[in-house]
Amino acid sequence: MTSAIDQPRVSLPGDVRMPMVGFGTWQLRGSRAYDAVREALDVGYRHLDTATMYGNEAEVGRAIRDSGVPREDVFVTTKLPPERAGQERRTIAESLAALETDYVDLWLIHWPPPSERASLASWRELLAVRDEGAARAVGVSNYGTGQLDALVEATGEAPAVNQIRWGPALHDPGRLDEHRERGVVLEGYSPLKTTDLTDPVLGEIARKYRVTPGQVVLRWHLDHGVVVIPKSGTPSRIRENFDLFGFTLTEDELSQLDAMGR
Ligand code: NAP
To answer: Which backbone phi and psi does 203 adopt, to 5 degrees?
Structure first.
């Protein structure tokens, strides 16, 4: 098992290093959220993905504190619900209080607000919050390329990250390039839910490396340079989903997986 220190990371502006495998926490509430995050930190994950909307920031914060892992060794993302546009300061203050921390590593606009004007106003607030130190990096989620460009045109600052639905069946090399060209890190969510884990191509590759189809899917993200944040409330799967560093996919295997959605 890879140690917490050795895991691959990607650089965000401001000298922020983001671990490429994070732990998703959507739909984990109460003690299930606390126990799962404790397990994830024990296994070696050092990147946790939460959101105001998930209603579990307090459990995530308590799990970090009780784990004994120093706060600065954990990359924490939370997200602004767009209906809180106009209340950005209050929302980040509430997130920090719940997470028991002075800063988050990444703060995202959870999905685009209803108008470009509202999106831009929130983006300016996120940049200000970053400049004041409450978020080390800021970005967006569920944005299209045109919506990213509108933020850059208005402020000269690209989001550090765009967190979007991603997986082999959604493979879109053009969209991946658009992110790279703009210096925006693509972070994929719902990697397992968007994949048919019984697909024979996945099964064959999994047998070759003696791993599971789920692990092949997660490794596919890493081999494309995409950050991935699988969620599980099951201890064995929490472990399995972080055990990705003992194999890499060949170019031919990547191409076979890229074609899953066609
Ligand atoms: P996911 O991680 O693709 O899939 C989670 C589901 O897969 C759970 O039902 C889990 O079951 C199961 N699972 C986990 N590991 C597995 C494995 N190795 N083999 C087979 N099944 C496995 O889906 P997600 O939770 O939608 O996405 C991941 C994270 O992305 C979320 O938790 C959240 O942090 C983030 N997200 C963000 C947005 C956004 O709008 N920004 C939207 C959706 C998700 P068990 O829990 O029972 O093990």
So the answer is: -60, -45
Domains identified in the chain, total number: 1
The parent domain of residue 89 ranges over: 9-192+224-247
- Quote the CA–CA distance of 164 and 109 in Å, as a whole number: 12
Q: Whose CA is nearest to atom 1 of ligand 1?
A: 190
In a domain, 127, yes or no: yes
What six digits make up the tokens of 236?
Answer: 């064995």
Please tell me if the CB atom of residue 239 comes closer than 6 angstroms to any atom of ligand 1: no
Q: Is residue 200 part of a domain?
A: no
Q: Does residue 197 fall inside a structural domain?
A: no
49 lines ligand 1 (CB under 6 A): yes
CA–CA distance from 236 to each of 39, 43, 233, 239, 241 (Å)? 10, 10, 9, 5, 9
Report the CATH number at residue 23.
3.20.20.100
Q: For residue 131, is it within any domain?
A: yes
Cα 101 from Cα 71, distance rounded (Å): 8
- 190 CA to middle of ligand 1, Å? 5
**Annotated catalytic residue 45:** no
pLDDT in tens, the chain (262 residues): 556 768 999 999 999 999 999 999 999 999 999 999 999 999 999 999 999 999 999 999 999 999 999 999 999 999 999 999 999 999 999 999 999 999 999 999 999 999 999 999 999 999 999 999 999 999 999 999 999 999 999 999 999 999 999 999 999 999 999 999 999 999 999 999 999 999 999 999 999 999 999 999 999 999 999 999 999 999 999 999 999 999 999 999 999 999 997 7
CB of 25 sitting under 6 A from ligand 1: yes
The 3-state secondary structure of 158-183 reads CCCEEEEECCHHHCCHHHHHHHHHCC
